[in-house]
Amino acid sequence: MSKKLTSEVYPNSPLVEVIFEIRFPGEPVVECRRDIFYESVRREYSQVLVPQIKEGSFVALEPYRFEKKDKSSGVMLAMNKFSFYCRKYPGFAEFKKEFMKLLQGFRKAYPKIDTLTRTGFRYVNIIPFTREDGILPFSKFLKMSIQTPPSIPPQYENISLGLISKTANGSITARVETVKSADQKGEAILLDLDYAKEKGINIRGVSKYLEESHSFSRQLFEDLITDDYRAFLRGDTL
Fold it and tell me: I want to staple 83 with a disulfide (CB 3.0 to 4.6 A). Which of 21, 120, 137, 180 is the partner?
């Protein structure tokens, strides 16, 4: 990866959600002591959202959400996973500080949970765009290239790509897709990056895993965006 990692928080950041999740072998104690964990977060995350069960799903594996009143961030807790999500990203230092505080409450409620099966750090970006003669101006924003035969012109109307790449201790999942805005009046590129660790992990190393996962995901984002789009994120006109 080419550029030096930056801790810069962009004024025009496309981030709409950042999530860090730990998974562990299913523990029934999570359901039995969910109220004990909730007491540790009640003051800040007072909204309790009970999962809606879909056909074919298992109740215990669907997470409860404890969310702030303004919906800016929240906690998810199920029998085999625990995560923190943030929709108004304050930068990594504050994100990590809050997650580690929440993890303390989790460990007090469930002291026997030690082994982890997965950690995942996810960056969800929404990049608005305006079409040029009906064509998606993909190269203005991202430096990804798609190799196709000459019979397929590189003037794309829409894109929907997904890939999973194995790493030494886990995987990288990336999705790039054109999406409509909620009101159907605008369009955007979804750039969804998920860096997972799946081998040799335990709960005592979570702080290190979070640092590593963030560094990789941020560097990947920096490597993917164009210099012109980076300038826009800093406040210049695109």
Answer: 21
